């Protein structure tokens, strides 16, 4: 066997190694040269760009009002891109009057039309870029092009279109998204879809209702979650029909929406939902009960304190703490539950609300409480622990489940 | 003997070629991925994310041990991060200085009886404190656990968000870093279970009130070499591995994880030497065993600036420790190697780490010995070996220059001509004698591991941004952890 280096020499007709050295030296030089040239070019480019930007800033009003003819700059790519970028930046922070003026300028100059054309005819990142620009204008005429982007083969483009429609924040955009979901099903991740729908359905959540009978369970779940987020008082009675739906997401949406109804009609349904087998339905119900802040909700909130799920207990406790004027009797009832986890959640909520000191003062000042009870209450408030451990095997099992939740 | 030496040299050369070509392939892949990522960023508006009501909350976990001098500045900066749903949990890991007191003073902390469910194991908690100035801040005061992992576990128990992000108290996060790191998670939260950001070298840069004021390259050679190393590791290595969903390390200084999953696998392993690597390896194992479809992403644009060792002694300790950590994770997971159940992780990522990372110092030192012996026995052509050395040098330089090019093409943090010139020059200079020293440090790590020397030696910290610092130039010594 020859030397390993000889093997390398034999690999090529000539000195392989020398060629390799030459290649890497050339590669090194090319990389170096590229880095230097690019830096030089970029310095020059940005210096020019900054200077041009300054000029445009100086002529801003003349430009936006149309005094400077559009034809003068829109055929120059660099100028057009620069002006569009500047207008979009201003548009995002502009007041309604200024927005209208800028939008008028973009329409008149053909910038929006150009972006619509690009969003329709380009592919890949160019289309994504056009979709984002269109969405930044929030011009209604862009909705159609954005909706077409939803049907692109590329998932990134679909996401860009979806986010863009979300940015539009109007029912027309919601309708486009919902129609697309009806046709295509859930072909994007759920969160961006939910997010876009929450943004677009806020104004008119009713647009969702017609789509909630979708046969795909996953789509119904997503729409249910959106409904839960955007539910308004106007939707309250409509939501009652979902209170006994098979899908927990829709039951949760109903629970959320019910917080907008009058307590007399909401509490009965919410108290049932607060016993649901699915934790997030119970959570929504408890949050809604807390939001109603009605004395008739108290027993159910106290019941929520003994829930096996930690989040439900915490929300129930926060709801109870909102009854600030009745905190002492509520605390007594909490102690009577003899639930360590419930007590812990309640004391945490009192602490977080900054009410621990005032509650202690109220307990001390309350003459209707016996001295033994007062001592127990203060001790429990101070330590967050029950003075006596009560409970049989079932209680302990529940406590164990609660600890694990 | 000559036959044996030639065989060894052959193996060494093929090993060397394989290693370098692997890196070259990674460079090409990383360049493509970065270009795609930059274009992808053009279709993203971060303010849209901020406005979304469904943006998931994040809990920042900040383990702190004797960091009273600068913890308040660090926490203030974290609370100022541009993310709408944020909770910051500082874990005071049995500090013996005034860490807790300075936080009590700075943030008006009050003792609270908050729900703390010890789902993952950690040393006992002494108390929980919430800030009256900013209710998003919770401080967990605990008994010393002897490791960063133990402190993070305590924070994990107190966290209430679906995502946790572990941040070192002595690191500086850029203001939009959380929004940026969440991009892949927000795009597909059901599949993306973790994401890591890029760690960059803070040494030399100017800070103002603990915030990055001006990025400059460090002064000392040893620090600049580390800048090149970090660029290579993150912009080439991690970018490429993540592309194939084979990312094995999400840096302990800045990474976001799904809270439920981290709890499910028992949190951080308290006495793991490389706890960040260990966590990701266990996440891969857990998810692959469950047959889950998941991704662990690397996002190159959210930046966490961290100080790196600025003297040889500290650097040697750090590198030995990293190598010990590598073995400490690879050895318990050896059963994942080449098993179909573990997919690409078992068949590609882990074998690569064994062969080209863990065993590299052993193979390289053996190679030096055999080449030297072959030369002594006259079985080696001096001209050719010199030529090969030149080729190797040139090739390694291409890779380093590639990482600088990657930086230039994409994120371009070093704007000063002088800095870039120095960065480029160190691509040529790092090979002698730094690489040889690095080899020795890594060997030391292996020896320490086999001797059972697992002690973590705290590294001295020269400067840190204190409360009073308005302008400070950082050129300090700090370990990664």
Structural write-up:
The complex is a heterodimer of chains A (405) and B (481). Chain A has helices at residues 4-10, 16-58, 60-65, 77-93, 96-109, 111-121, 124-137, 143-149, 155-168, 171-184, 190-201, 206-209, 217-230, 236-239, 248-257, 263-273, 279-292, 298-304, 310-321, 327-336, 340-352, 356-365, 371-383, 393-404. By secondary structure, chain A is mainly α. Chain A has a domain at 308-405. In chain A, α18 runs antiparallel to α19 (310-321). Chain A is elongated, with a radius of gyration of 32 Å. The model of chain A is unreliable at 389-394 (pLDDT under 50). Chain B folds into 2 domains: 2-17 and 356-450, no CATH class; 21-322, Spore Coat Polysaccharide Biosynthesis Protein SpsA, Chain A (Alpha-Beta Complex). Mean pLDDT of chain B is 89; it is low at 463-481. Chain B has 16 helices and 13 strands. With 481 residues, chain B is an alpha/beta fold. Chains A and B meet through α1, α2, α7, α9 and α11 of A and α1, α2, α14 and α15 of B.
Question: Quick gist of this model?
Answer:
The complex is a heterodimer of chains A (405) and B (481). Chain A has 405 residues and is mainly alpha-helical. Chain A has helices spanning 4-10, 16-58, 60-65, 77-93, 96-109, 111-121, 124-137, 143-149, 155-168, 171-184, 190-201, 206-209, 217-230, 236-239, 248-257, 263-273, 279-292, 298-304, 310-321, 327-336, 340-352, 356-365, 371-383, 393-404.
Main sheet characteristics of chain B = 10 strands, mixed
Instruction: Find the count of extended strands of chain A (DSSP E, 2+ residues).
Output: 0
Q: In one word, what is the shape of chain A?
A: elongated
Based on CA atoms alone, the radius of gyration of chain A comes out at 32 Å
Global mean pLDDT of chain A: 88
Q: Based on the structure given, which CATH architecture of the largest domain in chain B is correct?
A: Alpha-Beta Complex
Question: Low-confidence spans of chain A: pLDDT under 50, at least 5 residues?
Answer: 389-394
- Low-confidence segments of chain B: 463-481
CATH topology of the largest domain in chain B, by name, is Spore Coat Polysaccharide Biosynthesis Protein SpsA, Chain A
Radius of gyration of chain B: 23 Å
Count of alpha and pi helical runs of chain A: 24
Bin the helical content of chain B. Answer: 40-55%
Task: Give the C-level CATH assignment of the largest domain in chain B.
Answer: Alpha Beta
């Amino acid at each position: 066997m020859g030397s390993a280096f000889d093997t390398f020499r034999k690999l090529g007709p000539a000195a392989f190694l020398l060629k390799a050295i030459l290649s890497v030296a050339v590669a090194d030089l090319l990389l170096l040269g590229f880095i230097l040239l690019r830096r030089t070019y970029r310095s020059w480019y940005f210096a020019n760009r900054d200077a041009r930007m300054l000029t445009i800033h100086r002529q801003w009003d003349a430009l936006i009002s149309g005094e400077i003819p559009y034809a003068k700059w829109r055929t120059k790519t660099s100028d057009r891109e620069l002006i569009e970028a500047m207008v979009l930046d201003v548009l995002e922070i502009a007041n309604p009057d200024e927005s209208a003026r800028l939008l008028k300028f973009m329409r008149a100059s053909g910038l929006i039309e150009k972006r619509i054309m690009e969003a329709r005819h380009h592919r890949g990142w160019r289309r994504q870029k056009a979709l984002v620009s269109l969405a930044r204008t929030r011009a209604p005429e862009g909705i159609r092009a954005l909706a077409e982007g939803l049907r692109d083969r590329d998932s990134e483009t679909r996401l860009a279109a979806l986010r863009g429609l979300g940015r539009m924040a109007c029912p027309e955009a919601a309708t486009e998204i919902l129609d697309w979901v009806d046709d295509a099903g859930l072909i994007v991740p759920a969160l961006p879809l939910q997010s876009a729908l929450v943004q677009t359905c806020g104004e008119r959540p009713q647009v969702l209702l017609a789509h909630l009978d979708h046969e795909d369970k996953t789509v119904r779940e997503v729409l249910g979650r959106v409904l839960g987020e955007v539910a308004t008082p106007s939707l309250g009675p409509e939501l009652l029909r979902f209170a006994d739906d098979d899908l927990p997401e829709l039951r949760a949406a109903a629970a959320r929406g019910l917080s907008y109804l009058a307590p007399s009609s909401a509490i009965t349904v919410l108290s049932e939902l607060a016993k649901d087998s699915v934790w997030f339905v119970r959570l929504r119900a408890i949050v809604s009960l807390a939001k109603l802040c009605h004395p008739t909700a108290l027993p159910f909130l106290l019941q929520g304190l003994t829930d096996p799920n930690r989040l439900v207990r915490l929300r129930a406790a926060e709801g109870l703490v909102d009854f600030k004027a009745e905190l002492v009797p509520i605390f007594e009832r909490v102690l009577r539950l003899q639930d360590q986890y419930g007590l812990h959640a309640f004391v945490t909520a009192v602490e977080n609300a900054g009410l621990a000191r005032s509650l202690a003062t109220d307990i001390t000042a309350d003459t209707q409480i016996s001295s033994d009870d007062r001592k127990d209450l203060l001790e429990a408030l101070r330590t967050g622990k029950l003075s006596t451990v009560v409970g049989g095997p079932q209680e302990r099992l529940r406590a164990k489940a609660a600890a694990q939740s | 003997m000559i036959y044996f030496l030639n065989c060894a040299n052959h193996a060494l050369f093929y090993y060397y070629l394989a290693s370098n070509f692997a890196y070259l392939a990674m460079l090409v892949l990383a360049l493509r991925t970065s270009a795609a990522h930059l274009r992808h960023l053009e279709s993203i508006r971060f303010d849209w994310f901020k406005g979304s009501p469904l943006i998931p909350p994040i809990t920042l976990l900040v383990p702190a041990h004797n960091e009273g001098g600068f913890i308040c500045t660090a926490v203030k900066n974290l609370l100022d991060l541009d993310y709408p749903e944020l909770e910051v949990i500082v874990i005071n890991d049995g500090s013996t200085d005034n860490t807790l007191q300075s936080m009590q003073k700075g943030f008006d902390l009050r003792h609270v009886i908050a729900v703390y469910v010890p789902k993952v194991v950690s040393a006992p908690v002494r108390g929980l404190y919430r800030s009256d100035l900013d209710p998003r801040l919770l401080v967990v005061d605990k008994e010393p656990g002897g490791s960063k992992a133990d402190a993070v576990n305590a924070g994990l128990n107190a966290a209430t968000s679906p995502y946790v992000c572990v941040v070192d108290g002595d690191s500086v996060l850029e203001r939009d870093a959380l929004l940026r790191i969440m991009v892949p998670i927000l795009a597909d939260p059901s599949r993306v279970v973790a994401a890591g950001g890029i760690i960059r070298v803070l040494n030399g840069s100017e800070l103002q009130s603990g915030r990055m004021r001006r990025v400059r390259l460090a002064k000392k050679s040893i620090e600049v070499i580390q800048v090149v190393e970090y660029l290579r590791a993150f912009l080439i290595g991690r970018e490429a591995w993540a592309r194939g969903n084979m990312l094995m390390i999400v840096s302990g200084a800045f990474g976001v994880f799904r809270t439920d999953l981290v709890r499910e696998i028992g949190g951080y392993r308290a006495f793991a030497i490389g706890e960040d690597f260990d966590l990701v390896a266990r996440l891969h194992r857990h998810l692959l065993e469950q047959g889950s479809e998941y991704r662990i992403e690397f996002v190159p644009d959210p930046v966490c600036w961290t100080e790196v060792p600025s003297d040889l002694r500290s650097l040697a300790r750090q590198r030995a420790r990293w190598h010990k950590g590598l073995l400490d994770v690879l050895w318990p997971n050896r059963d994942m190697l080449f098993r179909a159940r573990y997919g690409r992780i078992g068949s590609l990522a882990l074998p690569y780490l064994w062969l080209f990372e863990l065993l590299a110092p052993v193979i390289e030192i053996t190679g030096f010995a055999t080449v030297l012996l072959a030369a002594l026995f006259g079985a080696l052509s001096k001209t050719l070996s010199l030529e090969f050395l030149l080729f190797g040098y040139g090739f390694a330089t291409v890779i380093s220059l590639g990482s600088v090019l990657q930086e230039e093409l994409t994120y371009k943090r070093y704007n000063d001509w002088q800095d870039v010139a120095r960065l480029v020059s160190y691509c040529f200079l790092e090979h002698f004698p730094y690489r040889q020293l690095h080899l020795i440090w890594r060997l030391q790590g292996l020896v320490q591991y086999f001797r059972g020397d697992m002690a973590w030696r705290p590294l001295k910290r020269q400067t840190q941004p204190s409360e009073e610092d308005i302008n400070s130039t950082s050129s300090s010594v700090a370990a990664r952890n």
